[in-house]
Amino acid sequence: MNQRRINVFILTVSSLIFCFNVNAASFEKYAPKLMHFEGVGYGIHKPIWGERDFSKSEALKIHRQHYWDRFHGDLFESQEVAEVFIDHIINAGSGKSKANIKAFEAIIGAEQDGILTVEDVKRANSFYFAEQIVNPYAKYRVLYYKTRSHVGENPGWIIRAKSFMMRNAFGIVALTDVSLPDSIERRFRHVRL
């Protein structure tokens, strides 16, 4: 009888651990996509990280510690939401006055202070559909890249941003169909999609 209780206890704990981890974003799921986008240099900007070649494992360690962990990637319930946000921070940085973080905060309706907090992540997790965050942030990314002076030389920036777009219940969504908070729309009103 005692052995049976132990087995039931172990099964219950294992089930709880599995259920908890199923609903969380994971750097390990994101890493292959990141490496595909970043290519040969693994996305390590040498003026920041040092003038040397980095191995894939070193690059992944930098991306995990300085981006995924710093911006609470494992606390996001949606893999897609974590990826669209953190990928932009990896690719473009926080932006002038942390504009790229503030845009994410505006989309989720949080205080726009440029500091992604655990409370901000909880707010993002409260959205029922991931595309309610992912598609607006992907649109923001496209608009952001279109204002960069080197966008013509780097068409991959826009391709990368668009790759995060999610289908909704009605099918594929065009960028022009996605709404952004007024503050972001006003900032990019001069940009054509």
TrEMBL record:
Record key words, sorted: Signal
Entry superkingdom: Bacteria
Domain TtsA-like Glycoside hydrolase family stretches: 52-93
Pfam families found in the cross-reference section: Glyco_hydro_108 (PF05838)
Cleaved signal peptide residues: 1-24
SUPFAM superfamilies: Lysozyme-like (SSF53955)
Record protein name field: TtsA-like Glycoside hydrolase family 108 domain-containing protein
